[in-house]
Amino acid sequence: MPELPEVEAVRRKLNREITGAVIAAAHLVRRPDRKLESRLRGRRIESVTRRGKNLLLELSGGAVLRVHLEMTGNLYTIADARRRPATTRAWLELDGGRALVLDDPRALGRLELLSVEQAEQLDASLGFEPVAREFTPQRLAELARASRAPAKLFLMDQKRISGLGNIYAAEALFRAGIHPAKPANRLSRQRIERLYRAIVEVLDVAIQSTCNAYSGPGRFDAGETFPLAVYGREGMPCPRCRQRIRRIRQAGRSTYFCPGCQR
Fold first, then answer.
1. pLDDT (tens digit, 9 = 90+) per residue, 87-131?
2. Percentage of residues in the chain having pLDDT higher than 90
3. Which pLDDT belongs to residue 72?
4. Which of 43, 50, 51, 53 is catalytic?
5. Distance between CA 46 and CA 20 in Å, rounded?
6. Strands 99-103 vs 54-59: parallel, antiparallel or unpaired
7. 2: exposed, middle or buried (C-beta count within 10 Å: 0-12, 13-18, 19+)?
8. Residue from 241, 243, 257 nearest 166 by CA
9. Among residues 2, 5, 180, 217, which one is catalytic?
10. Predicted model pTM
11. Is 53 a catalytic residue?
């Protein structure tokens, strides 16, 4: 699933490419909705923002188009709307024959039009942005004290910290030397501070890497420079202690960690 760095890479690219464009027509393939298509037509795209893993297209007339990419979705522009891929689930016709397409092989992505009030409710329902100034070691400590969840699941709780997913939660815990099953409320202040620094460092490197070499949400290509230490490396040697990386299941998802470095 695309996480904060991938979604941020999409946001930055689209904000440059489509801000100011007017939607000439809208087409929903997977879930046809003529009323929604009509409500989108003629609106100007004022900006593209992000909240957690949600892309938000702020439109003229007091509306916000929310797009969630889910597992395999991607949102990008093409020069000719007629050349959209077969896995397109929705597209917006823009000026000059361009189109903004929601390309989603598994057809799990979601698209909905929100009022300003609904967008504010969405914002309030999500946790702290880990790349925002408001996210501090003190905030992280407060959140951890209130949770008995395992550290990995605590980091992935979107109501507490918004945007972290499987990949970067695992990598942050490795950098901080914290076992993914350690209860959040049992982390010492020193460990919380290490975890905070690890989250910030991981996301900073990952955002720059995905923006420089972005090919699609959830995919690492030849240009990707983010150094995966544990994720997807079961059985391979730890880059620090050389013990073999292990994989366990947590809430139905795979968690990767080093048994030597993370305790």
1. 999 999 998 899 999 999 898 898 999 999 999 999 999 999 999
2. 83
3. 86
4. 53
5. 6
6. unpaired
7. buried
8. 257
9. 2
10. 0.89
11. yes
Could you confirm whether 93 is annotated as catalytic? Answer: no
HEC assignment per residue over the chain: CCCHHHHHHHHHHHHHHHCCCECCEEEECCCCCHHHHHHHCCCEEEEEEEECCEEEEEECCCEEEEEECCCCCEEEEECCHHHCCCCEEEEEECHHHCEEEEECCCCCCEEEEEEHHHHHHHHHHCCECCCCCCCCHHHHHHHHHCCCCEHHHHHHCCCCECCCCHHHHHHHHHHHCCCCCCEHHHCCHHHHHHHHHHHHHHHHHHHHHHHHHCCCCCCCCCCCCCCCCCCCCCCCECCCCCCECEEEEECCEEEEECCCCCC
> What are the distances in angstroms from CA 186 to CA 103, 144, 145, 189, 192?
42, 8, 8, 9, 10
Give whole-number Cα distances, 62 to 20, 58, 110, 115, in Å: 15, 8, 20, 6
Tell me whether residue 253 is one of the annotated catalytic residues: yes
**224 flagged as catalytic:** no
Rounded Cα gap, residues 257 and 84, in angstroms? 40
Domains identified in the chain and CATH numbers: 4-125 (3.20.190.10), 137-257 (1.10.8.50)
CA distance 88 to 101: 6
**Looking at the DSSP assignment, which residues form a beta bridge with residue 114?**
64
Amino acid at 7: V
Higher pLDDT pick, 71 / 46? 46
Spatial CA neighbour of 25 closest among 98, 84, 93: 93
